[in-house]
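Researcher: For the record, we're logging two predictions in this thread. I'll number them. Prediction 1 follows.
Model: Prediction 1, sequence and structure:
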Amino acid sequence: MQRYIEKAEVLIEALPYIRQFFGKTVVVKYGGAAMLDPALRASTAQDIVLMRYVGMRPIIVHGGGPAINAMLKKLDIQSRFTKQGLRVTDGETMNVVEMMLAGSVNKDIVTLLSQAGAEAVGLSGKDGRLLYARKAAAPDGEDIGHVGEIDSVNTKVLDVLCENGIIPVIAPIATDKSGGTWNVNADTAAGDVAAAVGAEKLVFLTDTPGLLRDVNDPESLIHRVHSRDVEQLKKQGIIVGGMAPKIDACLKALNFGVRRTHIIDGRVSHSLLLEIFTDKGLGSLVSHDVPEGVEGF
């Protein structure tokens, strides 16, 4: 009997959040171990489907670096990255990136959500003119090929799907008015989509507990970050590497009205539910309205 009482208490704890987020849009950047480990794949899909069935409007933006790297290796095409972690994308590489992201990776996620009980539709930025982009400039001036920055998001496509209870699953391949093809960083794309649709939340599933003061110490998690503290954290070398585009995406989303952005550990089973529906939450919160000064400093 005690076990059932504990389950009831969990549901009661979730009730205020279910009420608060009913009808709200949550953009999830899906990547890392949560895409690769079978048990985590299943639990993440269950989380997303539950979000949908309690009245939320989840939108998924995904990466696919491991799948791209594996196919490039199979085809004997060298993977190259800038110091900032951007994939140098020539024409040959772009074909592989689009094939893997908009093809096998995207449809695999759609199938996963379908098996968990939801209706989902896979999209790339080319579908419905969803994502328009322009050529991105690397900070060091290097020509990085078909790497793009999003100019616009056609939110009408996403609204139609969400209003009909269908979960959009977006591969970050964009186009332009000339029909070009652009590889967009998935973190950046998630921030742009969240900003465009006016999401309530933007959540990044990562392979780290969140933003850490010391990347080698998982206990150094920074639970809350005010947006005004971000530049200082960059200067201190705390926001570096793959964390930088995530934090930048958080800032853009916040500046366009997204209320909360989160960087959480996708290696934890049901991490999305723990973040959204529990009092304690999970990972790092980045927001405009937390007390200034970084928690733990």
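Researcher: Logged. Prediction 2.
Model: Prediction 2, sequence and structure:
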Amino acid sequence: MLVERLERLAARDATSVSAVALRELAEISRRVDNPMLLDALPDRDVGPVVITDELDAERAER
């Protein structure tokens, strides 16, 4: 199943299965740092309700 999907991607992109597999692994591996990057962000102490209320207010003005 996985190999078949990789083969379809390779055919679509006119490249090898190995190249597609490496490209996909590289893309996925970038995400491994996301939790660390998010944890490094400062806490603004703004809850989701405040954010959604502000978004709704902005949208209502449009």
